[in-house]
Amino acid sequence: MTDRTVQGTETASVPVTDTGRQESPPVLGLEAAQQTFRTERGDVPAVAGVDLQVRTGRVLCLVGESGCGKTTTARMAAGLIDPSKGSVLYRGTDLRRMDTQERAAFRRSVQYIHQDPYASLNPVRTVHSALTAGLRRHKLVKDRHEARRAALTLLERVDLTPAEDYLDKYPHQMSGGQRQRVSVARALAMNPEVIIADESTSMLDVSIRISLLNTLGALRDDLGVGFLFITHDLAVAKYFAWEGEIAVMYLGKVVEQGPTPHIVNNPQHPYTQALISAVCEPDPALARGKDPIPLRSAEIPDLTDLPPGCDFHPRCPLYTPGSCDTERPPLVRGPERLLACHVVNGQG
After folding, report:
1. How many angstroms from the chain centroid is the CA of residue 237?
2. Are 229 and 59 in contact (CB under 8 A)?
3. Which of 184, 132, 117 is nearest to 156 (CA)?
4. How does 193-215 read in b/e, with b if 16+ C-beta sit within 10 Å?
5. Nearest alpha-carbon partner for 312 in 325, 330, 294, 322
């Protein structure tokens, strides 16, 4: 495959997996999506031109430091906010051009799991009410008896058993992990094609986190649900998206994207290398001799005053004067990944 610029004048072709099998068409996509917020200090380019695609039964993990634009990207993908520029597409149709019927289909097919299980559920609604509200709104059940049976099935699917013990509880009567499973069940009620999970395990204990990830993985494998999975934790991304893709985001831009094994085992962008080097290694034998990659600076640039050239160059250990600080690197397609770096791509 020849190199080509993805962000800019050209767009990416339909990707091919490592086995040579062509991927299915994307259910959800962002094309040159931008989000700029107006503030008293100036315009804040939270997302500065992102191209992403989510496919049935596949996982795309969006990773990066806090404040890099992951959640804003997720909210655009879910249709919760409109992009300032660019497009969000559902099965090839721009959300802003949809009629009422198409918009309703999108709302059912793309569901959102929020980060905070304590704030995402209405405290005055029972689990039954939370799970059946959407079913009643979209007329997916005939009566209250069918709604109750559907709610019980949803709870069993997310491993909250016996389901009868949870159906009439209020959020304050459950643990954080149980609340988040209710949030997952609520998302599943619409039979979604895509679930957008925004740091959905970050507030849970480690043991509960793994259990919930296994539940989400079963939904991916058994029901063919696609995931846009947002996380700052590369260890979680590796666990959940090993057969999917990782897109690494820095200051509103994707700087590296590719199959998870390639990104984790052979990171190319210096920012990705720094993120992976900072992941704790539980095996002492493997941790020995593994030191975090030293950056030129620990300070993250202000979004209202971005440096010229590559946004990462003030911190980058591979910084090369004359190219890194003068021209923004394009996101270029290589044989294994998309990469935006003058030095690694041989342009520095």
Report:
1. 10
2. yes
3. 184
4. bbbbbbbbbebbeeebbebbbeb
5. 325
| Paired strand residues for 45 | 36
Tokens, residue 315: 């911190």
Report the chain (348 residues): mean pLDDT per 10 consecutive residues: 38 44 78 92 90 93 90 94 94 93 92 86 92 88 90 90 92 89 90 90 76 85 91 88 94 94 93 85 56 80 89 90 90 91 79
Residue 247 CB contacts under 8 Å (≥ 6 apart), including other chains: 52, 60, 61, 62, 63, 254, 256, 257
Pairing of strands 110-113, 194-198: parallel
Q: Are 54 and 197 in contact (CB under 8 A)?
A: no
- Contact between 51 and 14 under an 8 Å Cβ cutoff? The reply is no
Strand 85-90 relative to strand 93-94: parallel, antiparallel, unpaired?
antiparallel
CA proximity to 52, closest of 25, 72, 75, 32:
32
How is residue 320 written in tokens? 């090369």
d(CA 105, CA 335): 36
Query: What's the CA gap between 48 and 86, in Å, rounded?
Result: 10
Cβ neighbourhood burial of 38 (10 Å; 0-12, 13-18, 19+): exposed
Q: Coil, strand, or helix at residue 85?
A: strand
Can you read off the two tokens belonging to residue 245?
């893709």
| Token couple for 89 | 């597409």
pTM of the predicted model as reported, rounded to 2 decimal places? 0.85
What Cα–Cα distance (Å) separates residue 263 from each residue in 30, 61, 214, 283, 338?
21, 11, 22, 20, 10
